[in-house]
Amino acid sequence: MRKPQANGALITPPNTLRKKVGGKLGPVNMAAIAKAEAALSSLSENFDEWISDEVGKLEETRKAVLAEGLAGNAGQKLFNAAHDLKGLGTTYGYPLVSGMADSLCNITLEDDVRAKASIDLVSAHVDSIRAVVRGKIKTANNPVGQTLLKELSDRAAEFLAKV
Length: 163
Fold this sequence. Notes:
It is built from 8 helices and 2 strands, in the order ββαααααααα. It has helices at residues 17-21, 30-43, 47-68, 73-91, 95-108, 111-116, 119-134, 143-162; strands at 2-4, 9-11. The longest helix is centred in the middle third of the chain and has 22 residues, at 47-68. The chain is extended, with a radius of gyration of 22 Å.
């Protein structure tokens, strides 16, 4: 395993990844994929209700932020709610929500940055997410939604560049 070098020895560790992964993958089970897609499709009638619930949680965390500020526990909860929406938006058929929530996450991820964020910028994100869900804007190509997302992302980038 050791190869002599002029100024030391090169140690090559054994590659144990294959043992941990289990070797080569077998053929794709198309029946299992079809079954999973059917299960997801049967749940999709609940997506609008579920995303509305998530937006409600985000709005509740904003109320707490308005009372307590972004620096504390309320700010962390706001980030958590935005992070949930970032992942769920596209899954539930609202890709613009994922983009807007991602922008909100960018300005609320780190404690010290979040403490300096403008509550107006945070509220603009929350209000935009709520508007997309209430308007049932389920396409990323919606011109108003795209404009909102671009504006939010630009403002977040400007803020982050200053911090």
